[in-house]
Amino acid sequence: MSEKVLYEGKSKIICEGPDANSYIMRYKDTATAFNGEKKEDISGKGKLNSAISNLIFEYLAKNGIETHLIKIIDDTSAVVKKAEIVMVEVIVRNVAAGSFSKRFGVPEGTALKNITTEFSLKSDELGDPMINDSQITAIDIASEAEISHMRSQALKINELLCALFIKMGIKLIDFKLEFGRAGGKIILCDEISPDSCRFWDAATNKKLDKDVFRRDLGDVLEGYREVLKRLESNA
User: Fold this and answer.
1) Environment class of residue 10 by beta-carbon count within 10 Å: exposed (0-12), middle (13-18) or buried (19+)?
2) pLDDT band at 16 (very low <50, low <70, confident <90, very high)
3) Which helix (H) or strand (E) is 46 found in, with range?
4) What is the pLDDT of residues 80-130, one digit of tens each?
């Protein structure tokens, strides 16, 4: 790797970009869960996540969502806009699962009467705790206007993705998003992949996402390959 590495996270490496307004983002093969407590390198995972996320970001861009993606370089790398990441994750839920089910005692798979949005603080050290609007503004992570924009964008993204994935026979259970500040705007950053979404087969409820790794349910990449296959046929 010839580019200067600026940051290495659990699943991606950020390098200097070709100009002052960009980065190069590289996907790793590392799978992690429980804030990094469970970790394993799975050959081919980075390539799959890269392909899936790039297709989704291109679809979203065509439908009016501004993203950080500029240009795909190769199977695991892309040029992205330089952005200051807003240090909260936006979580959208259509169906009860994961931590939502644990926190509120709602059986996993229960359809929610309305879509929910949550924010969590981006902090592995603190366990990514939930944080509300007034707490976000109180510690100066984002303004009320930025929070409102992120929430409205997340709901629009959910609408677009649900429409896309239902055609593929996949239920979008929930997902998390990251946003960043670039050129005076809040734009979609990071990735949208089976690492950051819960995808269930619409006919069987088979998990096609990182829960397979979290819960030791079998071949992690089988579901990722299936998501990519269906995306390539429908995106």
Assistant:
1) middle
2) very high
3) helix 45-62
4) 999 999 999 999 999 999 999 999 999 999 999 999 999 999 998 999 999
CA distance 136 to 38: 29
The model's pTM: 0.95
What number of other Cβ atoms are within 10 A of residue 67's Cβ?
Answer: 22
Do the beta carbons of residue 148 and residue 133 sit within 8 Å?
no
DSSP characters for 117-156? EEEEE--TTTT--B--HHHHHHTTSS-HHHHHHHHHHHHH
Chain segment 152-176, per-residue pLDDT in tens: 999 999 999 999 999 999 999 999 9
191 vs 56: CA distance, rounded Å: 9
Q: Tokens representing 230?
A: 């269906």
Both structure tokens of 40? 């394993």
Q: Please count the other Cβ atoms lying within 10 Å of the Cβ belonging to residue 52.
A: 24
Q: What is the predicted pLDDT for the residue at 12?
A: 96
27 within 8 A of 49, measured Cβ to Cβ: yes
